[in-house]
Amino acid sequence: MPSNIELKIRWKSPESAIHKAESFGASYSKTMEQVDTYFSIKDGKLKLREILGERAELIYYNRQGDRKWRSDYVIAGTMDPENLKIILGSILRVLVVVKKRRLLYLVDNARIHIDEVEGLGSFIEFEVIIREGEDQAAELLKRLRDHFMVSEENVLKVSYSDLLMKV
């Protein structure tokens, strides 16, 4: 099962995030409108992600740890998200729907997500895929955090779905 480590940060200005990403050496990849439907399961998280105009994927992930927020995940593409959503909604309870506009920047084995989440505001998410070992991924995440001058009070230890369920 693939793994990554990530960090989610509350951020005021998408424009400043873009500047920081580019000055770190990240390249703009694309802008996506995403709708994530989360389903109630016993362990981990299960969501159907619809990337408008592109594709849909069923994603299961399980996070461990506070400091490195590591996730093990599995992604399955689907050609029929509407019917899959009906089937899953019949079997499992829908928890919440997260709608966001995501700008994607790439550098090395890291993805920088600059997100505008409906009902929540602006965020940055660093997602570093563990390819060359967890130490390399942790070092890259630390370099990103330092470059963006992330303060501890802006770090979030929960997902957008968790935040929306508290609103």
Summarize the structure.
This protein has 167 residues and is of the alpha+beta class. The chain has 4 helices and 9 strands.
Question: Would you give an account of this structure?
Answer:
It is built from four helices and nine strands. It is an alpha+beta fold and 167 residues long. The chain has one domain (3-166): Beta Barrel (Hypothetical Protein Pfu-838710-001). An eight-stranded antiparallel β-barrel has the order 1-5-4-3-2-6-7-8, surrounded by four helices.
Number of domains: 1
**Count of alpha/pi helices:** 4
Strand order of the largest sheet: 1-5-4-3-2-6-7-8
Tell me the overall shape. Answer: globular
Here the CATH topology equals: Hypothetical Protein Pfu-838710-001
Instruction: Please write the CATH class name.
Output: Mainly Beta
Number of strands: 9
Give the N-to-C terminal Cα separation: 33 Å
Classified in CATH, the superfamily is: Hypothetical Protein Pfu-838710-001
Order of helices and strands: EHEEEEHEEEHEH
Gyration radius (Cα, Å) is: 16 Å
Largest sheet, in brief, is: 8 strands, antiparallel, barrel
CATH architecture title: Beta Barrel
Please mark out the parts with pLDDT under 50 across 5 or more consecutive residues, or reply none. Answer: none
**Percent of residues in beta strands:** over 45%
Average pLDDT works out at 93
Structural class: alpha+beta
Helical content band: 25-40%
